[in-house]
Every structure is written in C-alpha cells, then in structure tokens.
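Quick log. Single chain, no ligands specified.
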Amino acid sequence: MAEYVCVVCPRGCALMVGDGPDYAVTGNACPRGAAYGRSEATDPKRTVTATCRAVLPEGVSDPRLPRRVPVRTTVPIPRARVGELVAALLRAEVTLPTRVGDVVIADWEGTGASVIVTRDIALTVE
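-> predicted structure:
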C-alpha cells in the first residue's frame, strides 16, 4: 500500500493505493483522483519546466536582453528520466528572438515529448 497526495485539483485528497494487479485507490473524491493514484503507482510522469541559455544573433549586443529562455515539455515524461532531460537542457541554447511554442528539442529521446519555449522574447527591449 502506498500513500499519495492527489494534485489533480486543489482539494489535495490523501490517496491510498493498493498493491497488485488492480491498484485499488481509496480516499479520492473524484474519478480523476483514482486515475492519478494508479498512474503514480505504476508509471509516474512529470512535466518538466526549466530554462535554456539564450544566444544573441551575430552582431546583436544588448545587456537588457535575458540570458535565459523559459521552456517546458509538451507532455509529461517518465519521472526516472527527468534528470537526463534537465542535463540536456543545461547544454541547450536558444537563439533570440523567440516565440511561445518554438521547439527547442523535438521528440526528446523518442518519448514523444518536445521541449518548447514559453515566453516571447523580442530583440528590442522597451
């Protein structure tokens, strides 16, 4: 038996998930909590948010521009592989300007998760 706190909604139900083939869930107030509990017990996944190094195009120099670009995965990845992805993002570089949805890494390691930019950054700062 494993214990989890459901994060699907603000209610934060205390879930108890049984062992075995059925992974019975108790303590959930809604069906989404039961699905979350079974998922956490069998194949936990996480959406990764991070930043990548911003690179200015050749000939552009503006100290007001950010040095990092915020990014996230398009779908959750297996929790056990989060460290690998973060290491890859530490090496990744994004050339400015950026638009929300620009792809930094497409289909990372065949997981189906791409890493996209989450903020527009223009070369002219106001």
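The chain has two domains: 2-42, 46-117.
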